[in-house]
Design goal:
457 residues; alpha/beta; Rossmann fold; Helicase, Ruva Protein, domain 3; five-stranded parallel β-sheet; two-stranded parallel sheet; elongated; binds zinc ion
């Protein structure tokens, strides 16, 4: 195939093609229709969400032979040359490599001359926050007395680094990350036009890995097509991005939850042979167990960006297992990652955590404990957001004896307090009044637990 990277090939050419930024494109269209154009625009937002693309579309809208028009014709000389990046009056400047005062003074001189082709003279300055203080001062002088028919469009990922004096002279537009569902639909559609098929697991992995940046998603697509041709499957994405496959995570979790520690260790051994690192496995396992916990607690609203088949896999793995049991296993595995950070051997920490976790159900009869309610699970996730700096990290103690005998009580911090203190009878004794207190205790415990979980993407 004649090769043009997707990010260029699929670049939106008109306002209506820009995805997920309607709040910006609608306002710009209105301004053009009502002839209320500013002299300077600031486009802010994460990388790869359409800032420069929208700047070029605005340039076309202004300089099209029919312009200013919200719907540039795409056929005229001006439209075609702006799309190709060769229009004399539409200048794209990279703020990172032209950050000094000399470049901006030069720009100021040239901005005084009328547009060579009669329309608007448009300066698109990318990464404008990189300019030096002196350069910003020089720029400010132009913005204070802008020449007629000169328009500046500044793009930045870091608006806080742009001086207030500049900000106050710009119309600001905040671009947003592209939601996974919108991105997935777009990629599926565009890929379809190229006769590329992509299954829903692959699509959800690509969207998740992109972090909401279309440019990143499309560059992953480029790699996938060179890697696996026109039929893209979830597995290929996992391999390309070095992700641990969900099936493997499900098998390990299931083995641990059903007290088959040796099976879990064999799976870990296989995964290490296949090239995963222990740290990758732990991070992926913690992420998977977190989703399992939310699923078990009936709080799936907290699970985002998973495909239907991944959700089905969660259901299948957690069937017949109590949420409290998942919670304790998660706690142990997350504890292993804490131990590694403080210098313990990764492999030993992981193996010890899995073995201990697989003995947990038997040792404490945990599955009989009251469930973590949806309310509690959601509160825990919320408090994680508010409280991400909390220091309530609970370390798993090291004094783990080798316990070949399932009956040997292991001294472990267990989440539900009643069972630890009073073994079995405490649970029966707890009437409705203690319900609230127990929930609160869960919230505290789960919050502490979530603090230990490293960001897994
Ligand atoms: Zn045109």
């Amino acid at each position: 195939m004649s090769y043009l990277v997707f990010a260029r090939k699929w670049r939106p050419q008109t306002f209506s093609e820009v995805i997920a930024q309607e709040h910006v494109t609608k306002t710009l269209r209105n301004a053009i229709e009502k002839e209320r154009l500013g002299h300077a625009y600031l486009f802010t937002g994460p990388r790869g969400v359409g800032k420069t693309t929208t700047a070029r579309i605005l340039a076309k809208a202004l300089n099209c032979i029919n312009g200013p028009t919200p719907d540039p014709c795409m056929q005229c000389e001006a439209c075609r040359r702006i799309a190709a990046g060769s229009h004399l009056d539409v200048l794209e400047i990279d703020g990172a490599s032209n950050r000094g005062i000399d470049e901006i003074r030069d720009l100021r001189e040239k901005a005084r001359y009328a547009a060579a082709e009669g329309g608007y003279k448009i300066y698109i300055i990318d990464e404008v926050h990189m300019l030096t203080r002196e350069a910003f001062n020089a720029l400010l002088k132009i913005l204070e007395e802008p020449p007629d028919k000169v328009i500046f469009i500044f793009a930045t990922t870091e608006p806080r680094k742009v001086p207030a004096t500049i900000l106050s002279r710009c119309q600001r537009f905040d671009f947003r990350r592209i939601p996974s569902s919108v991105m997935a639909e777009y990629i599926r559609e565009e890929a379809g036009k190229e006769k590329i098929s992509i299954d829903s697991d692959a699509l959800s992995l690509v969207c998740r890995a992109s972090g909401g940046s279309m440019r990143d998603a499309l560059s992953i697509m480029d790699q996938l097509v060179s890697f696996s041709g026109r039929e893209i499957k979830g597995e290929a994405v996992s391999r390309l991005l070095g992700l641990v496959e969900a099936d493997l995570l499900a098998e390990i979790s299931s083995a641990v939850l059903h007290s088959r520690g040796s099976v879990a260790l064999d799976l870990i051994q296989d995964a290490l042979v296949r090239g995963y690192s222990t740290e990758e496995l732990i991070a992926a396992l913690v992420g998977f167990l977190r989703n399992l916990l939310l699923s078990a607690a009936g709080a799936e609203k907290g699970i985002t960006d998973l495909s239907d088949s991944e959700i089905a896999l969660l259901h299948q793995t957690v069937a017949g297992v109590s949420d409290v049991h998942v919670l304790n296993v998660l706690r142990l595995v997350a504890g292993a990652s804490g131990q590694i950070r403080s210098g313990a051997s990764p492999r030993i920490s992981l193996e010890a955590a899995l073995i201990t976790a697989s003995k947990l159900g038997i040792a404490f009869g945990i599955e009989s404990l009251p469930p973590v309610t949806e309310k509690v699970a959601v509160a825990a996730v919320d408090s994680l957001k508010e409280n991400s700096n909390s220091s309530s990290v609970t370390e798993v103690p090291d004094k783990r004896k080798s316990t070949d005998d399932d009956e040997t009580p292991v001294e472990m911090p267990v989440v539900a307090e009643p069972s630890v203190n009073g073994k079995n009878d405490a649970v029966d004794d707890a009437p409705g009044d203690n319900e609230k207190e127990r929930e609160n205790s869960y919230v505290r415990k789960i919050s502490g637990l979530f603090d230990m979980i490293p960001e897994n993407r």
